[in-house]
């Protein structure tokens, strides 16, 4: 039989031959796009086994069709690139649960997006989408859909088929009306919309029994109808220009958290007796905190970060149920002694202020677990710091500390102590009493010697010593390094590192 009459290859063989080239093509694309091997392995077996692929900020404009071969992917993260479209083969990723396409240039989505039956999170904010394909409704397991900052003027009716959707963000689009299909989302818990759509949402409220969280934008006034959303637990009013709160707010008896302009705080305080479940308050645009804040005795969390506060009223101490207080990024120069009355406080963030001292009453915060004092002007710590028996994390980065009080050794629960960029010239021997310490950062100080007691830190995992004028390490620390058998990481300047390693080998 001549060659012309040879039996042709089977279809299976032909497809196998074609498929054999996908790996080389995908690698070639990765090389052209300057994607590192640690991000996209050039090993076929590793590539096929990957469950997460992170290709953020790589600036590529196209996604190769070969991406569809990575059938084990559960998470695909492509944010901050230049994608204008997705290949139809994206629909082959049947195990995908998270698809993050934030900040690209997508104007459309392929219909095959609907084949991602296991998808739970679809992140599309910051693109150029003007429409969504009807197939979006086939994503029956979708729980989070972020469409903010696109060009959508409408949504397909099929959006109502997303029966498991819990979170929907529509801000920054061109919607003139809220699609009726939204009312079909019976499991929706959290929605973000432009303020002009609020009344339509309120009309749909009877069909959205699980709606608990609402974020509104671009409002100049809050309509009285807001009071009809009696199931609301979280209300975010940031990004608005409100000059008053309607009395109807008092009808939100289930409200637990509100974010709003601090200039409306006094109005909220007057309404507080009608908001018995209000536990969390986030405020912005504040220059002073009124003494009336003390009337919010039910608060458990108070976030005053990113304001222009220079001091706090003594009445802050009346918030006896407070568990978390965030005062980061203000201009505080001191704290009132009454801060010590916050006996239930577990977390206190004072980072990025101008504190030069702490009141002795700080030691009365017997339940405090996290204390962040990063980037202040502290030159010393009060002896009472040792009374914080439950403290687990203490951040003192970027201060002017020259010494630590011996009482620091009383912090028996401390796990992490960060003293990066201070003026420490010595450590107290009591540092060795921190039995539970796992991380100690002493970089960028003026330490010439470490106390032998540092070798008693039997649970230490990380010790950072770079940029200190150290000439040696205590033998106790060298022995600890050997005993931990690789469980202790010590970072040193290269010159000292070489000598210390040689000495350790001779122990």
Automatic annotation (TrEMBL):
SMART domains: LRR_BAC (SM00364), LRR_SD22 (SM00365), LRR_TYP (SM00369). Keywords: Leucine-rich repeat, Repeat. It is an enzyme of class 6 (ligase). Gene3D superfamilies: Ribonuclease Inhibitor (3.80.10.10). It comes from the Bacteria. Its EC number is 6.3.2.-. Residues 90-149, 322-418 form the Disease resistance R13L4/SHOC-2-like LRR domain. Pfam families: LRR_1, LRR_14. The keyword Repeat applies. One of its GO terms (cellular component) is cytoplasm. This is E3 ubiquitin-protein ligase slrP. It comes from Cardiobacterium valvarum. The lineage of its organism: Bacteria, Pseudomonadati, Pseudomonadota, Gammaproteobacteria, Cardiobacteriales.
């Amino acid at each position: 039989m001549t060659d012309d009459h040879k039996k042709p290859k089977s279809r299976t063989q032909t497809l196998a031959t074609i498929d054999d080239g996908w790996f080389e093509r995908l690698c070639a694309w990765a090389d052209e796009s300057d994607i590192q091997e640690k991000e996209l392995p050039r090993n076929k077996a590793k590539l096929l086994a990957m469950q997460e692929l992170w290709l953020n900020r790589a600036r590529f404009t196209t996604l190769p069709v070969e991406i569809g071969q990575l059938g084990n992917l559960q998470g695909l993260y492509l944010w901050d690139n230049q994608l204008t479209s997705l290949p139809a083969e994206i629909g082959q990723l049947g195990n995908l649960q998270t698809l993050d396409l934030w900040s690209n240039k997508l104007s459309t989505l392929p219909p095959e997006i609907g084949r991602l039956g296991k998808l739970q999170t679809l992140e599309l904010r910051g693109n150029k989408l003007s429409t969504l394909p009807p197939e979006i409704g086939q994503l029956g397991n979708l729980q989070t859909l972020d469409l903010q900052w696109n060009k959508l003027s409408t949504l397909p009716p099929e959006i109502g088929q997303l029966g498991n959707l819990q979170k929907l963000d529509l801000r920054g689009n061109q919607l003139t009306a809220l699609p009726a299909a939204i009312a079909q989302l019976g499991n929706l818990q959290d929605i973000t919309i432009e303020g002009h759509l609020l009344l339509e949402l309120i009309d749909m409220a009877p069909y959205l029994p699980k709606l608990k969280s609402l974020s509104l934008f671009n409002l100049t006034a809050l309509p009285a109808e807001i009071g009809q959303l009696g199931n609301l637990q979280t209300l975010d009013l940031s990004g608005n220009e409100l000059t008053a709160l309607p009395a109807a707010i008092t009808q939100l008896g289930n409200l637990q958290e509100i974010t709003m302009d601090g200039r409306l705080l006094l109005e909220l305080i007057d309404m507080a007796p009608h908001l018995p479940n209000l536990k969390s308050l986030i405020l912005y645009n504040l220059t002073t905190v009124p003494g009336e804040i003390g009337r919010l005795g039910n608060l458990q969390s108070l976030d005053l970060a990113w304001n222009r506060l220079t001091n706090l009223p003594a009445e802050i101490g009346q918030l006896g149920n407070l568990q978390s207080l965030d005062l980061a990024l203000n201009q505080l120069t001191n704290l009132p002694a009454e801060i010590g009355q916050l006996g239930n406080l577990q977390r206190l963030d004072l980072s990025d202020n101008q504190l030069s001292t702490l009141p002795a009453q700080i030691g009365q915060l017997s339940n405090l677990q996290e204390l962040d004092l990063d980037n202040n002007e502290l030159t010393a710590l009060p002896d009472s710091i040792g009374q914080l028996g439950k403290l687990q994390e203490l951040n003192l980065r970027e201060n002017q500390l020259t010494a630590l009080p011996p009482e620091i050794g009383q912090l028996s629960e401390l796990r992490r102590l960060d003293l990066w960029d201070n003026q420490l010239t010595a450590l107290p021997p009591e540092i060795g009493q921190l039995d539970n310490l796992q991380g100690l950062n002493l970089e960028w100080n003026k330490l010439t010697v470490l106390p032998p007691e540092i070798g008693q830190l039997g649970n230490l995992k990380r010790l950072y010593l770079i940029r200190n004028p150290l000439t040696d390490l205590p033998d106790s620390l060298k022995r600890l390094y050997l005993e931990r058998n690789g469980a202790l990481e010590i970072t040193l300047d290269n010159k000292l590192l070489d000598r210390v390693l040689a000495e350790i080998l001779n122990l």
